[in-house]
Amino acid sequence: MEIKESFGKLLLIGRQPGRMFHQFNHFLGDQEELESISPPANTVVQNRTGTPVNSSYGGFAVGSYNYSYLLPKFTQCSNMPMTYSVAFTPTNASLFITFNSTLLGLTISPYNTTFVARQSFNKNVTIYARHNYTWDIILDNDPENDEAEFFVTALSATGTALSISTAWLKIQAMDNQGITFSVIDAPQPVLPATWTVFTLRVTAKDPFNQDTPNVYDIWLNVTKNDAPVMTQDHSLILNPIYITKAFSYTFWYQNYTDIEGDSVKMTCTLSSTVTDFTWVSFEVNKTIKGNVTFFGQSPRDNTYAGNYTLSCQFNDQYKDFINTFDYVQQVLPKQQIQILKNETKAYIRLPQNITFNFMGYSADPQQEPNYYQLFINDTLYDASLFERKWMDWDSVSTNLTAAPFNNTHGGNHSISIKFDDLISVPMFMNFTLEIMYNWPLIAISTLNNLNVISMNWFYFNFNVTQIFKNPEGEPFTMYLRLSQSGNNLPYFITKNFTNGTIGGFATDPDVGNYNMECVGVDDAYWETFIPFIMIVKPCYYKCKLCWDADYNTCKSCKPGFFFYNSECLDECIEGTYPDPPALKCQNCPSLYNAKNAIREFSTQMMVAIENGVILLVLFVMVRALSSVIIVLNYLSKMNLELLPNKDIFYQEQSAEYLNVQLASTFSGMMNLIFTIFIQASAKTAIKPAKNVLVHTEINTCTPCEDIYGLFTNEEYECEEICGDGVKINKQCDDGNLLPGDGCSQLCQLEYGFECLYPNKTCRENIPPSFSISTITPTNLVYIEFSEPVYVKNEKGISQENLLVEIVGSLGSYVFDWRIIQDPNNPLLPDRIIRRFELKLSEMKQSLEGTELVKISFIDYSLVQDGANNSVTLESFSTINPYPFIFLSAEQASTASGGGTSLKYTFLSVFSFNLALKVVLNSSMQYLWGLVHALQVFNFLLYMNINFPDNVVLFAKYMQVASGNIDELNQYIPNFADYIIDENKVVEKKDDEKLQQSFKDDEMSPYFIISFGQKLSIWAIGLLVILPFVLVMNRLCKKVKLWEDMAGSFFFNAPLRTFIEMYIELILQVIINTQFVKFTNFSQMIATLCAFIFGSISILLPFLAMSIIYHNRRSIRKMKWKRKFGMLTEEVRSHSVLQLYYYPLFMYQRLIIAGVIVYIYESPVLQCLMIMLCNVSMALYMILIRPFKEESQQATTVLDEFVIMTCVGLFILLSEKKMLPDEQIKLGWGIIVLILFSVCKNFGVVIYFGIIKTRQKLKQMFSAEDNQKDSVHSSDDMDKSDEDDDLQADQFDTMELEQEVLNEQSQKKSNQNANTSVFSQYDNNAKAKRLTDMNKQATILQNIPGTTQQQ
Predict the structure, then answer these.
(1) Helix axes 925-940, 889-920, angle to 10 degrees
(2) What's the CA gap between 434 and 167, in Å, rounded?
(3) % helix / strand / coil in the chain, to the nearest 5?
(4) Are 1163 and 943 in contact (CB under 8 A)?
């Protein structure tokens, strides 16, 4: 405590008796003036204040010392006597100060004074409620170096004494050097006060002033500890938005601080004046850590308009007071659409059109999309109500088109366009559309009936203006139509012009009366019609074309009648003959007619010559046309070649007459020239009919049909009859019109035949040939003949008469061959033979595929067709054989021996493990790895790759891994034989669809057939073994063997069997998907069986994953192990992915099977996809490490890499062109890889099988040693089962610890997501969590089997 000084006042008064007085203030120096007489002279007295310095300066120290101090005297100018007195302020100073008025001296004894000291400590201490504060009051010094003593009294605001040891106010320490005060969790002021003052009264004294201590009041101001406040101003009222708009407002929660420095806690809630405010939300740290975002996208509904408030409450950790800050987002209702312009009343007259476009008639303040609706006469527009859509409305383009075409559309139509945004109140724009009527045309005249003659053209013209009149004076159109037929016309009217003209051509079927209408159409499409009749009359019944319908005045005749002199006759009259093509009667040629023609011609020529006008010209013409005459003469002879007595007619009659006439006029050369000219002219002028033979002697016409062997053909020429067995000039005639027998239906020789005699069967003369149609990859050769053949004897097609050679780079090839005998097509005499087959075998060298297989006959005459034509001499056929890899006996023995060793070693190891499983209940986990590897290697060889024979031979023995044992298969029935008829299921076309690899292995494409033996075993297990086990378990209760066997049927044993056979089963099902059939009962059963097992196979991995996931915490329990233990007994359980090994294993096999079948035509793609599956499984094994045993894990990964290496060699084998020997070497490499994987698995199975057996035996013997005797042998087993259940019920501590941590993390994240409270955890929450963690750790330590390290 610092004590500086205390002040007092000493007043020295000097007076003149009865006249005056003088006083002065010792410290303050106050003076008063003298009255009446002169006052004493001023005297100066030095103040004694402050820290004591010496006897003349400074204050006096309180203590045990006495001090003397002389005061100066007053002087007066008149030397008047003075008296002195002393006045003390305060008055109690007289207790330790005495005054000697004679000596004017002061004696000061401050050891018992009540002198008040002042300290330098803070007398006003201000703290916040709920806060802690500690401060010290320290003694500064004591001038006398006395020992200080302190006493403290606490007073409330009302002056009531408080206990100094209250819960919140304490004296931490107090000694002679000072006091330490401590305030802990100061109380809040009583509302409405914002602060409370407490007084701490400190009494300070030393041994010398016990009665007059110094008292100091310290005011303790406890100010209200308020809630956090906003320290950085920001708006709480957000900018208003309209409905459909979004808002987002972000503020920093650091903008709110606590003035007292306490931690800040914030809790925000949403509220609104609207019932539904789910669209509004807030999020902490949405954009960046440290902020709060209040956001939302308003719905498109004005009912959501209102105020949305985000109320954020802020308080400190004491939660005495809460400040609430409301962020208010006002959402205004969307404004109505604004109508920018209106449409006035519109007028149109029928049939005018009008179009309105209302785009731009409105505007949306918020730029929201607008939707338009049309109301016509207060009814929503419906296009179906408007005929031919004369009122058309497009709500997208807002086009309104009115196209009235009928007076029913006229009148006033109220049009209302609704502008709607589907949010605010819609707006309407209304106007009226007036459609003025249009009246129909007026008929001003009638029409007469029209007459038309059949088989004639007709045209009629109508004057439109004389028929109709338009009242409106507008243009109009006219057309004709049949009554009550729409707007159709008779089909024979082909011309119909808008000016009123019609025309056409009527035929006989058109004869009749047609009710017609002349229709006038105005611009409003009103129709006015005038009826009339069109009458189509036929010609005379004989006429085809005629001039008049009522008389036989014809232009041409109908078939059966002949035209002659404008009439149609039934028969031609005498002197004429019928010409059927022309339907005319032609005049028969006669001598009279020829003579008259020639006489007339010659007479005219003689007149001209006699006149001398054209003699010279004629001479020149004859010279120029001499060559033409010769040609014409030759052609005339050809045309008359068939006519009898032609020489008589032309030479004797015509030429004689001409010569007589010319001889009288010309001589020499001119006579000869004119004779030739006129003779040629006569021949060209007289032509006979085509369908008759002209007899010039008797002047008659004989039809062709009247002459034996002739008929009139389609060209009406005389032609020989074909097929009557009479041959005149025909190539052949075998007495029939059948083609293909050597003589066609046109009596022409056909290729490959010869016809030696008429009316006899022709003979084929083309020898048969043969060719190699195809060759299979196994070098099975198919030879076909060009036509069916016969053999004279059994030697015809035999090894004695066939020559089979292989021609190639080696020169000579050693091989054997044999003819494949087909029971349905025996190679015997008198049997039709179309084809035969032979097989190349026993080859002693490899084939590259570039060689030629050449086949020929030794004696070709032994093979003939039905016409006894032998096979073409010296003929042969060749084809390239398929590449063949020759395996020597040593190589074949090696491959076969290796496969045999593999097979029997596998069976031995399998039997060994199975025995250990039955006797000792040991694990078979390593055996399954061996099975899986062998199965994959076996089924990969079904890929579309030509594997070397050594690989194929070796691979046959790997089928043992799938349960295919040849020695046992003959004793196992096929399930399919009992429920379906295989002959009704299998079809010949199946071989065309089935992939070659499966055909080579003689695999049936039907699941129920190919998998039938295994289905039989399953059926025996379910129908025989299972009932037997259940009965034995019932009879021999508590015998563990029968209990385990019964339990394994539900469901471990079926699951294990299904998984181990999975790849073969799913492969068979996928193959069967290509052969889905429902034609008969057997096919339906086969398809249904494949569908059932296929569905189970595809769903099994997914179901296994689901079962494992839902029971992942129960996999250690005995109940799980008895049902589904095989799914998890070999794998770890630290993560779900580790438990998913077998489902993923099945998925991999499913993909491999699908790739083998569905991508068969792309072997490289097959290999790449299978390698991808292997890589994926290897990565899964390496990263997830599912197996409990690291050795099993390493073995499986190694198998995947070996399979990938083999598949890589498959790609090389498929893509690279290699010689057969190179393929064999590559095949040995594949076999070595397979053997490496298999031997490695054999070693692992045997080694770890022995180790596991030893462990099991040791466990059994140790348990037996500790076992107590019991009457019942099964008691210990029951106890063992109970122990197993107990052990299974125990928790895995690592998993439990991980689950606890996960639950805590989940609880924390849920709490953060649900509360949106941002604060620091207080000390109590931390302590609680620490306590919970300690409890959990204690639980973990108390769990049996838990180590300290865990």
Answers:
(1) 150
(2) 97
(3) 35, 25, 40
(4) yes
Count the alpha carbons within 13 Å of 1330 in the hemisphere toward its beta carbon. Answer: 7
Structure-token match 């039907």, residue found: 1006
- What does the alpha-carbon distance between residue 427 and residue 439 come to, in Å, rounded to a whole number? 38
Q: Please report how many Cα atoms fall inside a 13 Å half-sphere around the Cα of residue 480, on the Cβ side.
A: 28
Cα–Cα dist 886/194, whole Å: 111
**Residue 25, both tokens:** 């203030």
Q: Which residues pair with 512 in a beta bridge?
A: 536
Distance CA 210, CA 1079 (A): 129
Higher pLDDT, residue 1144 or 629? 1144
From the number of C-beta atoms within 10 Å of its C-beta (0-12, 13-18, 19+), residue 740 rates as exposed
3-state secondary structure of 1274: coil
Quote the DSSP letter at residue 116: P
Structure tokens belonging to residue 422: 């589907």
DSSP conformation class of 3: B
Instruction: Give 1156-1185 pLDDT, tens digit per residue.
Output: 998 888 999 999 999 999 999 999 989 998
User: Does 1267 have pLDDT greater than 90?
Assistant: no
Q: How far apart are CA 382 and CA 373, in angstroms?
A: 11
3-state secondary structure (DSSP) of residue 53: coil
d(CA 762, CA 741): 7
What DSSP element (H or E) covers 155? strand 149-155
**Would you list the DSSP string of 178-219?**
EEEEEE-SPPPPPTT-SEEEEEEEEEEE-TT-SSS-EEEEEE
Main-chain phi, psi angles of 384, to 5 degrees = -70, -15
Query: How many alpha carbons fall within 13 Å on the CB side of residue 89?
Result: 10
Q: Which two tokens stand for residue 1343?
A: 């769990």
pLDDT at residue 333 tops 90: yes
Q: Is 1310 helix (H, G, I), strand (E, B) or coil?
A: helix
Q: How far out from the chain centre does Cα 489 lie?
A: 58
Contact (Cβ atoms closer than 8 angstroms) between residue 1082 and residue 1058? no
Q: Which helix (H) or strand (E) holds 1303?
A: helix 1293-1315
- For residue 1043, what pLDDT is reported? 66
As a whole number of angstroms, the distance between CA 1214 and CA 1231 comes to: 17
Q: Supply 240's token pair.
A: 């208003």
pLDDT per residue as tens digits for the range 1272-1297: 444 444 444 444 444 444 444 454 45
DSSP string computed for 468-528: EE-TT----EEEEEETTBTB---TTEEEE-TTS-EEEEE-GGG-EEEEEEEEEE-TT--EE
What is the C-alpha to C-alpha distance for residues 885 and 1219, in angstroms, rounded to an integer? 9
Residues 6+ apart with CB under 8 A from 1275: none
- Per residue, the 3-state secondary structure of 940-978, as one string, reads HCCCCCCCCHHHHHHHHHHHHHHCCCHHHHCCCCCCHHH
Residues 678, 600: Cα–Cα separation, whole Å: 12
Amino acid at 899: G
DSSP sequence for 267-327: EEEEEESSS--TTEEEEETSSSTTEEEEEEE--S-GGG-EEEEEEEEEE-TT-S--EEEEE
Whole-number Å distance between alpha carbons of 1126 and 1053: 8
Write down the pTM of the prediction.
Answer: 0.39
Helix (H) or strand (E) holding 266: strand 265-272
Question: How many CB atoms neighbour CB 1156 within 10 A?
Answer: 25
Q: What is the DSSP letter of 879?
A: E
Q: Is the CB of residue 1204 less than 8 Å from the CB of residue 1171?
A: yes
**Contact between residue 466 and residue 473 where contact means Cβ atoms under 8 Å apart:** no
- pLDDT at residue 38, rounded to an integer: 64
Nearest CA to 43 out of 7, 82, 96, 98 is that of 82
